[in-house]
Design a protein that fits this description.
Length: 144
Amino acid sequence: MESDISKQKDKFIEGLISVIFGLAKLAEARDKETGGHLKRMAEYTRALAQTLRKTEKFEKVIDYYFIYFLYHASYLHDIGKLGIPEDILLKTGMLSIEDFEIIKTHTTIGADILRESDKDHPNIDFIKSDSLRILFINIKLVCI
């Protein structure tokens, strides 16, 4: 019985990861210039988390599962590009200052999307602790 539940849980998790990847690819499909950007960012995120895992500050926070889920969740980092007008997102050549300001809003749009999801599912407390928030800030600073 426990094995069946574990298998169902594994299937469910794989399904969620598939949805995450599909949403991320949807955002990436609008912007062909990014190429392997999502995969590279996921790899950077994993490498940073593995390095931080070795520090005293994060050794009790970061485990294999945390890194596994963080790696897959990182594919959503550009989900906010779905809210950027196509004529700006796909513009060739140099962006105007105004267009660049609009492109930069994709991070806020993405954060709003994920924040709304968090409101709708308050019992999922993936990013509730201060340690996790600090970890994500460190990863974001290194990736910029």
